[in-house]
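Here is one chain, start to finish.
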Amino acid sequence: MGSGSFSSVLKKPETTSFIILVLVMVGFTLANDRFLSPLNISNLLAFMPELGIIALGMTLLLTAGEFDLSVGAVFALTPVSTLLMVQNGGLSLELALVIAFAATFLVGALNGFLVTKVGISSFLVTLSMLLIVRGTTLVLTQGFPLNSWDGDNWLRTALAGSFYIGTVRIYASLIWFAALGLLALYVLNVAKVGNWITAIGSNRSAAVARGVPADKVKIWLFIATSMLAGLAGVISSLRIASASPVAGSQYELEVIAMVVVGGTALTGGRGTIIGTIIGVLMLRIIRNGIVLVGVPGLAFNIFVGVIILAMLVLHARFNKSSERK
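Its structure:
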């Protein structure tokens, strides 16, 4: 019984991801003693939750067999439109956020409608939406970053405030990431809709035949992914006190990599929130660690790409060997 349970744990995709994460952390700790310093941990925890929040929505969407390439552009549009309404329109931050998130909702809804009702692939729809949203953001700002947020607000504290545990700085975004992670874990693993999401990704026709509202589920998943990208963008903008029209560039690819490295199937039908959290940690730690060990700036993306590809190969080999056992 014990060996059987251990074997089943090894077969889980998140187990492989966790093993690789531990190896990565040990490697960087041995390579540079500053890796586990309070300052470096604080830096990791500042940026990691923002990409992690987007990755949670992408996990659910990928599990259903779709993905969204417009999340990086939405990441920029939501805070930019909010700040423009506050500074130029004289609106309160609360009202501006409501309007901005309404626009974000529409982006996700349009993505979902075009994919499910018109029948265009999510790759083409969301690639087009990426260009439209990014172009709109650039036009609104004339390509320049906006001035800093002025004044204090309870929303700024709630979304981007921080406090210290010992010498480690903890941002409110980490709490949001943890809470949303628990919600996503419940949705995928406990709630009825989680079974629907997995069934749609595995075999949409069979799921529909059993009464699963596949189109409705996918539309709401596109909306949720877009809204989470907007939330992450607002949190990031409030944290750094500015909004840039080019913020979030290539985040869509990094987020998909985080989700897939964590063990979610790119083709749909299998998703893991725990694995995604591990994947988010892994890629952020790699980006942070290779800077600490002195990788040249021009070779940065090459190094990250090679490591991600190597991890995916290792991930596949772990899975095959565990299946044979």
